[in-house]
From TrEMBL:
Protein name, as recorded: Vacuolar protein sorting-associated protein 53 A
Species the sequence originates in: Symbiodinium microadriaticum (Dinoflagellate)
InterPro entries membership: Vps53, Vps53_N
GO biological process: retrograde transport, endosome to Golgi
Stretch list, region Disordered: 1-24, 748-767
GO cellular component, one term: cytosol
Domain Vps53 N-terminal: 24-434
Length: 767
């Protein structure tokens, strides 16, 4: 709505909102509010008059607004026409300005093109003049360098070399031009002649034909000036001078020690190192003043000496390593390592960093050149030729001395390994041929941890391990790679051989032998020695892992040898068990020789064979308990009880027929034997109690034998079902039931029923 139209309607609602203007106007509701009751109808006429008056005002306002809107529309069209006309005039003016700008741009381009051509011509002219100046300077510098070199004015020549090199770099891109290429070739020839002349001057220091005359022609202090010239020629020239000079010094060394000369053998290795020390002292006295410290000529001499010595030793070892004394070879190797370490400490990179940086670059004021200002490609140069040339990084001459000689021995150390194996085998043979037992007695109140240590072992074991550790330490002093791994393989052979010699001290496999006290002591020493070796091998393995290269660590281990030693311990324990078992043969023979089927005596005291067993077991256990550690003594007791119970049941079945009273007597004897098995280890061990597991095992296994005898002594058992009921675990068809029926004197079994050795194997289990 137009602003004027809004102004016309504003008085109608300026005081408060008119309900008639509301969006949700409801006529009925509005009338009810105006006339809520009958009394209010009295003002109906006046209310209608007000509404008509208001309607008239609104119509008048609408007519006025329509008239004003029509007038404003005509005025807007006129303004729009004026604006379009002004825009057309503006476009015409812009087009005219653009045309004039294009004409001005063409004029400026013509002017700039001429200026650019003049600028390019000026720059090319400047470059040409500079190039000509540099060309003149290069020709002049080369001529001056040639003349100064002939006169051996090396200090001035050093300055000229810097200038020549700097100027030559500007013409490298023009080397395709014939005149420039000829000039560069001339420069290379002049520098080549200068290098050869300097080399000859340094070589004349050694003497020789014509060297005296040449030395007389050298000016005073030529060495310092020549060193500056060499530095100017670059690191390659310095290396060549040092190398040629040192090789000339080493000619005398080669004349003395070059194979196959008399002094070339390994036994003269110390003379080689002494020769170098003497030559270094001679260098300090005669030649040190002619060389700068930064050249490190003694270091270069040591490096070349090591390479020549390495080549000599390779030739010697290649032809004689099968016949050379291994101990001599190792002595030379160790001396070489010490010598290398000494050189590495003396000529380290840190020591090289302490040397001076050399002399400063020459100033352009020292050069008699026509255009010194064009030496630099940049304006405002510092005036130093050295500053204009690219900086050459200082060369660190620190060769790798460690291993430079000693590494040549690696390919020939197998001879020493074989020698070391032979030595260890001889040590093993000597130790075992006159071996002695060593040990100690334990107190009753000893700690449990100490009981793991063997009481007695052979003296050869610790001495053999000491010899192997010494061999390992010797090898680690010069090799931690293949050679040390080969020594580890030798150790495995030695341990296997030693285990074989210990096994030779035991009775033969499967052969039951009654051992005397000395035999028991020997078997116990085998157990203690094997246990000592088994516990010491991990320590030796750990020592090897600390020194050997990481490439071999995964292959280091004595697992197979430890298994051999543990099997040896088991065999030795079996030998002790068989020995004690053999001592009971007479007692068990008395048991099976008794006619138990006709036994009718009253059950009272124990049988004679039980007394024999009770008397023999403590005596047989006593030397074993005295010579074994607690843990191995308990292990022996466990194995013996397992074997004894199995044999006892077997011997019961060998009795053929057993009467009721005979079974009762055997039941009493079994109880006494059970007590003996519990007490004998304690008596032999001087009161040391056995673990509860041992007692439980004895009670459980002997209890099974007691059940069998109870079945045989029962007067009511007459059939398989009754026997199965008493046994509890066996069925009527169980072979054990049949065997028990055969044992009963009043049973239906065969009169010639024999023993059943398989019973023990089926009934008994180790604790």
């Amino acid at each position: 709505m137009d602003d004027d139209l809004e102004d016309d309607f504003e008085p109608l609602g300026s005081e408060e909102p008119d309900p008639l203007d509301a969006d949700n106007f409801d006529a009925v509701d509005y009338i009810n509010k105006q006339f809520p009751n009958q009394e209010s109808l009295e003002g109906l006429s006046s209310f209608i008059g007000q509404l008509r008056q208001q309607e008239k005002q609104i119509e008048d306002g609408i007519r006025g607004a329509i008239r004003r809107q029509a007038a404003h529309g005509r005025r807007a069209q006129a303004d729009l026409s004026d604006a379009k006309l002004a825009v057309r005039e503006l476009f015409e003016r812009i087009k005219a300005i653009r045309s004039k700008a294009e004409q001005s741009e063409e004029l400026v381009s013509d002017v700039c093109r001429d200026i650019k051509s003049l600028d390019i011509a000026k720059r090319n002219l400047t470059l040409t003049v500079t190039a000509l100046k540099r060309l003149v300077m290069l020709i002049t510098a080369l001529e001056q360098l040639r003349s100064t070199a002939e006169c051996r004015h090396y200090e001035q020549a050093a300055s000229l070399i810097h200038a020549v090199e700097e100027l030559s770099r500007h013409f490298q891109e023009l080397s395709h031009v014939a005149r420039v290429a000829d000039l560069l070739e001339r420069k290379a020839a002049v520098l080549g002649d200068l290098k050869q002349q300097i080399l000859d001057d340094y070589m004349c220091l050694h003497g020789g034909i014509g060297s005296a005359t040449r030395q007389e022609s050298l000016p005073e202090g030529w060495g310092v000036a020549a060193a500056k010239c060499v530095d100017a020629l670059g690191p390659g020239m310095k290396r060549e001078v040092v190398t040629q000079f040192c090789l000339r010094l080493l000619e005398g060394y080669k004349d003395i020690f070059q194979p196959p000369k008399e002094a070339s053998g390994l036994e003269t290795a110390e003379r080689r190192f002494a020769w170098l020390k003497r030559t270094l002292r001679e260098f300090d006295d005669k030649y040190k003043s002619q060389f700068p410290e930064s050249w490190r000529v003694p270091c270069g001499l040591c490096d070349l000496f090591c390479h020549v010595t390495r080549q000599h030793l390779v030739e010697i070892l290649d032809t004689s390593h099968h016949t050379v004394d291994p101990e001599l070879m190792i002595r030379v190797l160790l001396k070489s390592i010490d010598f290398e370490n000494e050189l590495a400490r003396k000529w380290s990179v840190e020591a090289d960093q302490d040397q001076g940086e050399g002399y400063p670059g020459p100033s352009t004021s020292q050069l008699l050149l026509k255009y010194p200002d064009v030496l630099s490609s940049k304006a405002g140069g510092s005036g130093k030729v050295e500053a204009l040339a690219p900086k050459v990084a200082k060369e660190e001459f620190a060769p790798r001395f460690r291993g430079i000689i000693s590494e040549c021995f690696d390919a020939y150390l197998s001879t020493w390994v074989k020698h070391e194996e032979k030595q260890l085998m001889e040590v093993l043979q000597n130790l075992t041929s006159a071996d002695k037992m060593v040990g100690h007695d334990e107190d009753n109140d000893e700690d449990e941890d100490e009981s793991l240590e063997p009481r007695y072992l052979y003296k050869s074991a610790p001495e053999l391990f000491a010899a192997m550790k010494g061999s390992m330490n010797r090898c680690a002093g010069f090799s931690t790679h293949n050679t040390l791994f080969d020594i580890f393989q030798v150790f495995r052979k030695i341990i296997t051989q030693y285990a074989g010699k210990l096994a030779g001290l035991l009775p033969g496999n499967g052969k039951k032998t009654l051992l005397d006290v000395a035999g028991v002591q020997a078997v116990c020493c085998v157990i203690g020695t094997a246990e000592y070796c088994d516990e010491t091998l991990p320590q030796l393995e750990e020592s090897l892992l600390k020194v050997i290269s990481s490439d071999f660590q995964e292959r280091i281990g004595f697992h197979e040898e430890q298994e051999i030693l543990r099997n040896l311990v088991n065999r030795a324990n079996d030998a002790l068990v068989q020995s004690v078992s053999c001592s009971l043969d007479e007692a068990f023979g008395s048991m099976t020789g008794t006619n138990w089927a006709a036994f009718s005596q009253d059950v009272g005291d124990h049988s004679a064979f039980v007394g024999d067993i009770s008397e023999r077991l403590p005596k047989q256990f006593e030397p074993i308990a005295r010579h074994l550690s607690k843990i191995h003594y308990r292990f022996f007791c466990d194995k013996f009880v397992q074997s004894f119970v199995a044999r006892f049941v077997t011997e019961v079945h060998k009795c053929r027929k057993i009467s009721e009273k005979g079974a009762q007597q055997l039941l009493l004897d079994t109880a006494l034997i059970k007590t003996t098995l519990l007490e004998a280890p304690v008596i032999a061990g001087q009161g040391r109690q056995m673990p509860t597991a041992y007692s439980n095992y004895v009670l459980r296994e002997m209890g099974k034998a007691e059940i069998i005898l109870k079945v045989l002594s029962s007067p009511d058992v007459v059939d398989a079902a009754s026997i199965s009921a008493m046994l509890g675990e066996s069925g009527a068809d169980d072979p054990l039931v049949e065997r028990l029926l055969a044992l009963r004197a009043s049973g239906d079994g065969s009169e010639a029923a024999s023993g059943f050795p398989g019973l023990a194997a089926t009934e008994l289990q180790p604790p």
